[in-house]
Design goal:
With 507 residues, the chain is of the alpha/beta class. It is 30% helix and 21% strand. It has 16 helices and 24 strands. It has a five-stranded parallel sheet, with helices on one face. Strands 3-4-5-11 form a four-stranded mixed sheet.
């Protein structure tokens, strides 16, 4: 959580502050004026101004609540606020007194300031300020199954399947942390901007794929977790011997960070076996972006994080668990085999519109996010909230594949195996519903590619069979259940097609 200035927020109503007098007169001791600071009343004064303690597991932070907005503050901020308030008092402080109190000495603003300047540690220590206590009935404003919220300086946007509208903060039902509020204003704006054009371009300028990618963006922006959770995986569509990248995956992921709280983790440094792998994730993280996952990453390592929540174990701090959407980008494909894996991921192939020789900055003549004017930001914000509303209306729409299965065949088997089996399918010698002797298939492969006869891997029938199964799982002709059978001392394999997955998934 980051600190933010209250003056950035444009609220429609101003809460009435009723400061409490925290100075009292008691019978003076020798050389003393008799005026004291009542510590309980001082805490009550701070409480009346909206300062609270907010508990986080076994720790706590200090906050200030104003107009349903929770600001994280430091002890120094509380101290400065108290001193500023004292400086607004009259030079001579004259509290209400009865007739028999008229002999009291006058109390000056300077005397009160001196008490605080003399002993700041007495008044502004964490233990004392922890007596501020909690806000009763504190409930945060949260996305629901049918609605999503995005927060701006001049109000909050509520998105539903029917569209979106801007509302003032005093109409917010729950509370929201200040760092969830974007430091810009929102207004409805219809003009198409750079980011929308960029998303259209990486969709291959195809309207159906553009619609699909918008629903995936909307899913990521919907901070609702009591549903079937999926990771969104952005990968390339081009078949290449090298991992080229630069197609726009990172830029798309970072676009979400200008709407939601995103923790970006470099994928090449992400070690699933390291218990501190998520230490950069915060309590308020809404999207975890695993950017550029390394080659041959085992997707099963993310199953529990996607479905059950992310356990964050920071060094020298207490662990905690959060729910967050997971976004993945990878130049290479990873294996998604079996119902459990397919149920946990939506994969989208980016068109090769952009490359290492042609970037969005080259096309639009501006550095995204950094060089935008107010209208460009309005275009961006309106596009993103439309994506959220579109998701709430249609769910995730999965796009037809371009080259994803073929890339998986090539990257997780062997190019010659793929060529051999492609030819078998083409001439009708390999199809669903038929039994094939695995040893015979292997021998036919070695006869066509004799260079593998002495290969440590492919010379073995069992390893060829593994490649055969992987190939079949990503083949549009063979995709389905792969069954093994033994008969008369021979091992057979048969491909049983299962029903195609639905293209639209409401989660």
């Amino acid at each position: 959580m980051t600190l933010a200035k209250e003056i950035e927020i444009d609220v429609s109503t101003k809460e009435v502050e009723e400061p409490i007098e925290f100075w009292v007169y008691r019978k003076p001791k020798s050389g003393d004026s008799g005026w004291r600071v009542d510590h309980k009343k001082f805490i009550d004064h701070l409480y009346s101004l909206g300062f609270r303690r907010y508990d986080i597991n076994e720790n706590y932070i200090f906050t200030r609540i104003r107009n349903r907005i929770i600001y994280e503050v430091t002890v120094t901020v509380i101290q400065d606020n108290a001193i500023s308030y004292i400086n607004t008092l009259d030079e001579v402080i004259e509290p209400e007194m009865s007739l028999h109190d008229l002999d009291r000495p006058k109390f000056t603003r300077e005397e009160l300031l001196t008490k605080f300047y003399t002993s700041p540690a007495v008044f502004f220590n964490e233990k004392k300020l922890s007596m501020l206590g909690l806000e009763p009935g504190l409930e945060f404003n949260k996305d629901t199954k049918d609605s999503g919220f995005i927060y701006y300086r001049n109000g909050f946007v509520k998105c539903t399947a029917n569209g979106y509208n801007l509302y003032p903060y005093h109409e917010l039902e729950g509370y929201v942390f200040r760092n969830q509020i974007k430091n810009r204003e929102f207004h409805k704006f219809a003009k198409e901007g750079m980011f929308q054009k960029f998303v259209f371009n990486i969709s291959g300028k195809n309207e159906e794929r553009f619609l699909s990618l918008q629903t995936m963006i909307g899913y990521l922006l919907h901070s609702f977790y009591e549903t079937k959770m999926k990771a969104v995986n952005l990968t390339d569509s081009k078949i290449s011997d090298s991992s080229e990248g630069r197609t726009g995956k990172t830029l798309l992921g970072r676009g979400t960070s200008h709407i939601k709280n995103v923790c970006e983790i470099p994928g090449k440094d992400f070690d699933p076996s390291n218990k501190h792998k998520y230490e950069a994730v915060k309590l308020d993280t809404q999207i975890v972006f695993l950017n550029d996952l390394r080659k041959k990453f085992d997707f099963e390592n993310l199953f529990n994080d996607i479905s059950d929540g992310i356990t964050v174990d920071p060094k020298n701090k207490h662990p905690f668990t959060i729910r967050a959407k997971i976004l993945i980008s990878a130049n290479d494909t990873f294996r998604v085999e079996g119902a459990s894996a397919r149920d946990r991921v939506c994969e989208f192939e980016l068109a090769d519109h952009y490359s290492d020789t042609f970037s969005p900055e080259d096309e639009f003549g501006a550095w995204f996010f950094r060089d935008w004017d107010n209208n460009e930001w309005l275009s961006f914000d309106n596009f993103m909230v439309r994506c959220l509303s579109l998701y709430l209306q249609k769910g995730i729409i999965e796009a037809d594949q371009i080259n994803l299965d073929k890339r998986k065949q090539l990257q997780h088997t062997n190019a010659d195996v793929v060529e051999f089996l492609d030819e078998k399918i083409k001439i009708g010698e390999l199809r669903c519903g038929m039994h094939y002797d695995k040893k015979v298939l292997h021998m036919e492969f070695l006869q066509k590619y004799p260079e593998y006869v002495n290969d440590k891997w492919l010379s073995r029938n069992a390893n060829f069979t593994k490649y055969l199964k992987t190939y079949a799982s990503y083949s549009p002709e063979l995709k389905g259940q792969i069954l093994d059978k033994r008969s008369d001392g021979h091992s057979y394999i048969r491909f049983e097609r299962i029903e195609s997955r639905q293209l639209q998934i409401k989660i």
